[in-house]
Amino acid sequence: MVDSREHWDNRYSSAPYSDLGWYEEVPEPSLSLILQLLKSKEEVLLLCGAGATTLVDHLLEHRVKNVMAMDISRKALDLMKVRLGERAANVRFKAMDVLSAMDFKEVPEVDVWHDRAVLHFFTEEWQMERYVENLNAVLKVGGYFVAGVFSQKCKAIMCSGLQIKRYDVGAMKKLLGSKYELLYNKEELYYMPSGDERQYLYTVFRRVF
User: Fold this and answer.
1) Residue 71 CA: distances (Å) to CA of 10, 100, 122, 155, 209
2) How far lies 51's CA from each of 27, 54, 71, 107, 183, in Å?
3) What is the separation, in whole angstroms, between the first and last Cα of the chain?
4) Would you say 18 and 172 are in contact if contact means Cβ atoms under 8 Å apart?
5) pLDDT value of position 106
6) With contact defined as beta carbons under 8 Å apart, do 198 and 60 qualify?
7) What span, in angstroms and rounded, lies between the C-alpha atoms of 94 and 110?
8) Which of 15, 40, 99, 102 has its CA 20 to 30 A from that of 133?
9) Structure confidence at residue 37 (pLDDT)
10) Residues 104, 137: contact at Cβ < 8 Å?
11) 44 pLDDT tier (thresholds 50, 70, 90)
12) pLDDT, tens digit, 9 for 90 and up, residues 60-94
């Protein structure tokens, strides 16, 4: 069984983060979606699987104040802290497992949960169920779930040495269940630093109860 924490620490130690397969210099469409959904700069935003993302830099430039960067890899978060420098004081960092109910006891309620390229690594039923349980534990009613996952049109069956699950809108709806209503969906073509293509599906759901 893969030790997830060790796996991702090793990935972030193996190459500059700007060479890793999910790197975005300008993190669109995530940035635009988040800025549209936050009703105020005071609302709490959770970046699930934040890694060393530059999304945080851009959010701080837009004066978003309550950013929580969560990742299983402490190495990834440390890389982000170094890059941010003094600005890191404006971000809450949480090195934790998105599948751990115990870890989530320390997470406050959030207004927006953003996940780009985490959910699609969970291929077993118990993993997907635990993910949704922890999402439901902290996302406020009326809050938004923003996800960027590998689309059914994506040709890849593995990423970073791990198997992945590909999604369409119907599969996303089934996963989240009746607590959520779909507000937005769009296919986006992403070019990895290597030049390879990956087709992503971006969705926005609102929690209704």
Assistant:
1) 14, 12, 15, 26, 27
2) 13, 9, 6, 18, 26
3) 36
4) no
5) 87
6) no
7) 14
8) 40
9) 98
10) yes
11) very high
12) 999 999 999 999 999 999 999 999 999 999 999 99
CA distance 58 to 35: 10
51, containing H or E segment: none
| Angstrom distance (rounded) from CA 53 to CA 35 | 16
Q: Which amino acid is it at 46?
A: L
How many residues in total does the chain contain?
209
Token code pair at residue 188: 């986006």
The answer to whether the Cα torsion of 10, 1, 93, 66 is positive or negative is: positive
* 1 pLDDT more than 90: no
Residue for token digits 């090793």? 10
- Residues 131/122, Cβ–Cβ less than 8 Å: yes
Alpha carbons within 13 angstroms on the beta-carbon side of residue 127 total 11
Q: What percent of the chain has pLDDT over 90?
A: 98
Question: Pick from 176, 115, 116, 106: which is nearest to 138 by CA?
Answer: 106
pLDDT (tens digit, 9 = 90+) per residue, 125-166? 999 999 999 999 999 999 999 999 999 999 999 999 999 999
DSSP 119: G
197-207 and 139-150 strand pairing:
antiparallel
The predicted structure's pLDDT at residue 109 = 97
- The tally of CA atoms less than 13 A away on the side-chain side of residue 76 is 31
